[in-house]
């Protein structure tokens, strides 16, 4: 399975279920003091045999910076697997979630670890606590913190773009369109978490929501590593037309600027549309998106009545087929057409022309 097919399969499942993801690897970790080569990031490498650790000290801590605030559902901690005498090292450690970076012990407590057996992974519910920082601190003297793996599970709200078909005017290498709706804001490695076009005139990106929604807001996350000014001047457009690839639809907002790595929200006041586009007008421009989130209500299911006068003796189903085809061409799929009442036939009588006599000259 290639990268694009993997994303499509994943997003199909996410679209059907509540979206709960482990976001721990999206952030950067730190320790109060590093013990030898037991780096903080070891707790995020997927292996329980490479652990992070502080030396013995007063009030040691391990901290994860997720770079933005999340609503945390639960945190998992894995203890050292090959050291029975180390089993008590995490006893009494506190798991904290909050937005305070320096004074870590001032963040609210999610849970207190009583004990974790050797090599076991325990899960601690945080019930939606909000915070940018996840801290494991062990209060007291002659203490250490040795998490071998840390997981942070977040419930994402109903992003309408999740699992939908996306496309862009061009693709720069591995910066494929789907990475703009993969939930990952691209803090660590942008090329595997963000979408980007090549340098071109009027670059654009589009998501097809399949149905028409009332869009209340759109959230755009800019890249962190460089060149945040590239997004300046981008237009967010919402509508039902695919004319000019959807870039002629009404404008929700124009992005003046977004700081590096920041997520900015744009209010769309319940604009109705199936397609959400971002386009940067101008020459030699690049459109890079690390995350696009679309929020609103719907789908909007409307019943419309159409009065038709048929001038053909063809089957009554033929006009409906033509009308449905025309609607599909304009972006309206999943349309059902039916007669609200049986059509009435109007009989047209044609008067016979008066007889004429031909006059033959002699």
Question: Average pLDDT, to the nearest integer?
Answer: 86
Quaternary: single chain
> What best-fitting shape do the alpha-carbon axes yield?
elongated
Low-confidence stretches: 11-17, 355-362
Order of helices and strands: HEEEEEEEEEEEEEEEH
- Helix proportion range: under 10%
Which structural class do the helices and strands define?
mainly beta
Tell me the number of strands.
Answer: 15
- Strand percent estimate: 25-35%
**What is the rounded distance between the termini?**
93 Å
Q: How many H/I helical runs?
A: 2
Q: How many strands, which pairing sense, and closed or not: the largest β-sheet?
A: 7 strands, antiparallel
Give me the Rg, rounded: 30 Å
Structure explained in plain terms:
- With 362 residues, the chain is mainly beta.
- The chain has helices at 3-16, 317-329, and strands at residues 20-22, 28-31, 61-78, 94-98, 109-112, 121-137, 149-155, 165-168, 195-196, 204-221, 235-239, 251-254, 263-279, 288-289, 291-297.
- It comes from Cyprinus carpio.
- This is Fucolectin tachylectin-4 pentraxin-1 domain-containing protein.
- It holds the Pfam family F5_F8_type_C_2.
